[in-house]
Amino acid sequence: MGESEILHDTRAAYDDVAEQYAETFRDSIPEQVFDRAMIGAFAELARATESGAVADVGCGPGHVTAHLRDLGLDAFGIDLSPRMLAIARREHPELRFVEGSMSALEVGDGALGGVLSRYSIIHVLPDSLPEVFAEFHRVLAPGGHLLVAFTAHEDDSQLAWAFDHRVTTAYRLSIPRVTVLLERAGFEEVARLVEAPGEDAVRGFHHAHLLARRIP
Q: In 3-state terms, what secondary structure has residue 16?
């Protein structure tokens, strides 16, 4: 399956579950202590650089975009699913949400102070991750920060393992290999948080949060 088919299937799958997804995750941030910790650190660094707006890439129904706004950021959301975006605009009319693909962001070079990609790269074909990371690098200002979160594996024998995601095709990603891909794209790691498998009550997966800085 090629990248265009993946994009089509991912868009359709999230359109189909948009209302249910929004209802499930609307109030989830207060319960996610590790997410909050890393998003908080990301927000503090992004505020300090004063390099521009922050994009929530794969924003879904917009609850995390709103959380970024509450942390003092000029945040906006980007998502592939029109129905997810319709919910985001309905529930957060004061914020901006645009349709787009993370491999071809309609954002100018160096325009952003931060990019958050929270559990969106898991739906990218593994071979396309370098292209996505290069796009994140392009839109970030020098010194801007990227936070990626993903279902993870600590094994470095391969980049990705497909798993039975409830919505559509998804991958667990090797933390060491993702780190290398980020370095090759022009990022330096700032911090990482890895949740132990026991913290995932559903599948027992690792969850990784990698915070990186765009090298000038």
A: helix
Reported pTM? 0.94
pLDDT number for residue 50: 80
Quote the radius of gyration of the chain (alpha carbons, Å): 16
DSSP of 157-216, one letter per residue? Answer: SSSEEEE--SSS-EEEEEHHHHHHHHHHTTEEEEEEEEE-GGG-TTT--EEEEEEEEE--
pLDDT value, residue 1: 54
User: What residues pair up with 79 in beta bridges, in sequence order?
Assistant: 99
Q: Over the stretch 14-24, which tens digit does the pLDDT of each residue have?
A: 999 999 989 98
CA distance 163 to 103: 22
**What residue ranges in 82-139 does DSSP mark as E strands?**
96-99, 112-118
Tell the CATH superfamily of the 3-214 domain.
Vaccinia Virus protein VP39 (3.40.50.150)
Coil/strand/helix, residue 87: helix
